[in-house]
Amino acid sequence: MQFGSAEGVRVAKAATVYDVAQLAGVSTATVSDTFRRPHRVKAATRDAVKKAADALHYVPSASARGLRHGRTGAFGLFSYDYFRTDPAAEPPETSVVGPGDEIRVVRGDKGFADRQFPVYVDEVQRGVELECWRRGYALLIGGGGHANSTTAVTDIAGRVDGLAVFPYTVPDEALERISNRIPVVMLSERPHGDGLSHVTVDNSGGMRAVTEHLLAEHGLRDLLFVGGPTTFDAQQRLAGFRAALRTAGLRVPRKPFPSAVDRAEATALVGDLLARDALPEAFVCYTDETALNVLEALADRSVAVPGRVAVTGFDGILAGRIVRPALTTVRQPMEAMGRAVVDILIGRLADPAGEPAWRRLPVEVVLRESCGCRLR
Amino acid sequence: MQFGSAEGVRVAKAATVYDVAQLAGVSTATVSDTFRRPHRVKAATRDAVKKAADALHYVPSASARGLRHGRTGAFGLFSYDYFRTDPAAEPPETSVVGPGDEIRVVRGDKGFADRQFPVYVDEVQRGVELECWRRGYALLIGGGGHANSTTAVTDIAGRVDGLAVFPYTVPDEALERISNRIPVVMLSERPHGDGLSHVTVDNSGGMRAVTEHLLAEHGLRDLLFVGGPTTFDAQQRLAGFRAALRTAGLRVPRKPFPSAVDRAEATALVGDLLARDALPEAFVCYTDETALNVLEALADRSVAVPGRVAVTGFDGILAGRIVRPALTTVRQPMEAMGRAVVDILIGRLADPAGEPAWRRLPVEVVLRESCGCRLR
DNA sequence: TTGAAAGCGCTAACAT
DNA sequence: ATGTTAGCGCTTTCAA
Questions:
Q1: CA→C1' distance for A26 and C9 (Å)
Q2: What are the counts of helices (DSSP H) followed by strands (DSSP E) for chain A?
Q3: Is the pLDDT of residue A130 over 80?
Q4: What is the DSSP string of A53-89?
Q5: Sheet holding A104-107, edge to edge
Q6: pLDDT tens digits for range A73-104
Q7: I need a surface site. Which of A374, B26, B174, B181 has the fewest CB within 10 A?
Q8: If DSSP states are collapsed to H, E and C, what string results for chain B?
Q9: What is the pLDDT of residue B6?
Q10: What is the pLDDT of chain A when averaged over all its residues?
């Protein structure tokens, strides 16, 4: 099958309603009606219009429709790539295959720095995509550099009827401007009335539950909370941890808590604890990523998990299922969160004068091996 | 911080250039210039305009700009979710957290049907996203049901300056129409002149190389090719397999080849082979997914891999790294393929009268355990 | 350096 | 059942 005109040359201007109308011998209104309100057009006329449209390869312009309508029919998601420090960086050079090129053979995956496991952001994004498709909306994915995120996100905002953002990816000024024009949903705990809609999970309840598991089922007493940046969600998780200790009548430690956001920090933390002979009975980590770092640092120093110390995470990312020992964690319903975002946006469009929405979804504790549980 | 007007009510119509111009006491042209060609506006005027724009929460309408400009500044990707048979299906009911709700505790991941490993399409999509962001394009992700894909893809096409599609996701008629209006890149081998641009990999070379590895390094002779739907890419891979056999002076088997696109088929295939005592020395599978199915079916029947039989795949998806034995495969540069798509689209925009592009990227053979290699 | 105004393609209100 | 037409918000000549 041969598409396009000869040699794939596309010189003619794209066909418009006017062209179709002329060829079909009708008015532009009838062309529009044929596609948008077909019942108002006589069948014969409809066929003639469709035939003309086919012949001219007519594709309606969403810009024109959006301008006329005041709505674009698309939502936006301002996302990011967790593994890319600088998305603006030049990507690695890629060659193309020439005749007689050797095919590289490598043993194992050593030094293969390509995409890792999907993390929180990826899984939520997929939920947003699926629900947009299901509800008939197009989805505009923006993201990348934090450098010019104001420009980038404002550009996205101008193209959509509603926007979803992850916390701390967009400057407050930009958010304020945008949220005044279209509904915005943020994927985080809801800071005291910021006028945005929020989708979040039961951060404190989940962390409390996993902590209680450590306390009640494994009889542990000396738990160390490992945190990171003080986000709203992190605060809630810490609160849940403390609540569990308090309820159990244990001493609730004061801040500061150590963090282990990367391998180096985790290594330092474990090394320090070991040096001071102060290893706790459990590392209660505020994210799976942190827990994975701690797990590796512990393995490096040959500290047995769960034999000598337990480790728990929070999120439920895929990597935690795969790693050995498998990570006990609190699973967020990431796909459902993404879907909820879209549902809220649609609701806000239907009732722009209503209150911002705030949806807190349930989590579940997933018991695997790193807490000391024996599966099956 | 409080965004939005009181109670988050958004009643006023969105501000336009006219509003900003009026408030700043300038013409609409000056407002436009302030943002698009700032150097042509006196600094003081610029500041005044920006101040007015801030005050009014002005966000330029991409629809209007797109209409005026004839370009939208966005690309489209028509994607799909590999694990979702019917994306139009109602998603599972999700509740919200109420006060006093119990937190569910589950042991292990039994019955957890959420998102699996990322596959080919996910990794290519991420490449497209990253390159779009890097080059300053917005990315519209469409996809989902194959039911109304003509409607869906045409809708996307109307919103973008260029479109990327995976093979067999869009009916030919739709592609023809669209490719007449905007550049289209397909992620597949290039069927004899379809007028589209293509990004592909060295399918035959890669399959030939992995087959030669089985022949030369492991001394195997009785190889079974396991295929699936007869796509362009599949045909090339089969050709590579046959070429390797031919070169080695081995008998090149005729079609038909068995397939194992799902677990059931793989189980049946292995069962049949076992019953006929006709197990080959190696299963050379045309995708990783198929190889993974075969691996599982073999494990079910306690056939040792690589002890009794070798298995190889094609793609390089994450799951193949994780599974035991780790899967020997041919890795496609998926992120680079996604990036190439965007690069081509930008090129075609710059030179609409040029030839469709055709970029064939190199693959590499990744030796892991399932072929019989011992790592490290 | 700034302003006036045309026009991008579409659709809905209104007219026929 | 179909046609006429205004106008959505923006940018870009062209003129001042």
A1: 17
A2: 13, 12
A3: yes
A4: HHHHT----HHHHHHHHS--SEEEEEE--TT-S-TTS
A5: A104-107, B364-367, B329-331
A6: 999 999 887 777 676 788 888 888 887 889 99
A7: A374
A8: CCCCCHHHCCCCCCCCHHHHHHHHCCCHHHHHHHHHCHHHCCHHHHHHHHHHHHHCCCCCCHHHHHHHHCCCCEEEEEECCCCCCCCCCCCCCCCCCCCCCCCEEEECCCCCCCCCCCCHHHHHHHHHHHHHHHCCCEEEEEECCCCCHHHHHHHHHCCCCEEEECCCCCCHHHHHHHHCCCCEEECCCCCCCCCCEEEEECHHHHHHHHHHHHHHHHCCCCEEEEECCCCHHHHHHHHHHHHHHHHCCCCCCCCCCCECCCHHHHHHHHHHHHHCCCCCCEEEECCHHHHHHHHHHHHHCCCCCCCCCEEECCECCCHHHHCCCCCEEEECCHHHHHHHHHHHHHHHHHCCCCCCCEEEECCEEEECCCCCCCCC
A9: 35
A10: 90
Q: Determine, for residues B94 and A340 on separate chains, whether the beta-carbon distance falls below 8 Å.
A: yes
Helices (H), chain A: 17-24, 28-36, 43-56, 62-69, 120-134, 149-157, 172-179, 203-218, 232-247, 263-275, 288-300, 318-322, 334-350
Q: Give A13-68 pLDDT, tens digit per residue.
A: 789 999 999 999 999 999 999 999 999 999 999 999 999 999 999 999 999 999 99
- Which pLDDT value is given to residue A10? 46
> What pLDDT is stored for residue A235 in this prediction?
94
Tell me which chain A residues have a C-beta less than 8 angstroms from the C-beta of B114.
123, 334-335
pLDDT digits (tens, 9 = 90+) for B100-148: 889 999 998 876 544 477 888 999 999 999 999 999 999 999 886 656 7
Q: In what order do the strands lie in the sheet with A223-226?
A: A223-226, A282-285, A310-312
Distance from CA of B113 to the nearest CA of A (A): 11
CA angle B339/B340/B344 to nearest 5° reads 120
In the predicted model, is pLDDT for residue A243 greater than 80? yes
pLDDT of residue B101: 87
Task: Pick the closest to residue A158 from A78, A244, A72, A92 (CA basis).
Answer: A72
The pLDDT of residue A342 is above 80: yes
C-alpha–C-alpha distance, residues A117 and B318, integer Å = 8
With a CB cutoff of 8 Å and minimum separation 6, the contacts of B277 are none
Alpha carbons B221 and B248: distance in angstroms, whole number: 9
Nucleotide nearest to A43 (CA to C1'): D1
User: Footprint of strand D, using CB within 7 A?
Assistant: A 25-30, 33, 40-42, 44-45, 64, 67-68, 70; B 13-14, 16-18, 28-29, 31-33, 35-37, 58, 60-61, 63-65, 67-69
Q: How far apart are CA A122 and CA A336, in angstroms?
A: 13
Quickly give A17 CA vs D4 C1' distance in Å.
15
> For residue A43, what are its two tokens?
């069948």
Q: What is the largest CA-CA distance in chain B?
A: 88
Mean pLDDT of chain B: 90
Please report, in angstroms and rounded to a whole number, the separation of the first and last CA atoms in chain A. Answer: 56
Residue at the smallest CA–C1' distance to nucleotide C6: B68
Is B59–A4 a contact, with Cβ atoms under 8 angstroms apart? no
Give the global pTM. Answer: 0.91
Q: What is the DSSP string of A42-62?
A: -HHHHHHHHHHHHHHT----H
Contact B134 A196 (CB under 8 A): no
Rounded to whole angstroms, how far apart are CA atoms A299 and A357?
A: 44
Q: In angstroms, what CA-CA distances link B169 with A70, B81, B143, B145?
A: 31, 11, 9, 9
What CA–CA distance (Å, rounded) separates B138 from B74? 4
Residues of B in contact with A103 (CB under 8 A): 202, 205-206, 208-209, 362-365
Which residues lie across from B141 on neighbouring strands? Answer: A139, B77
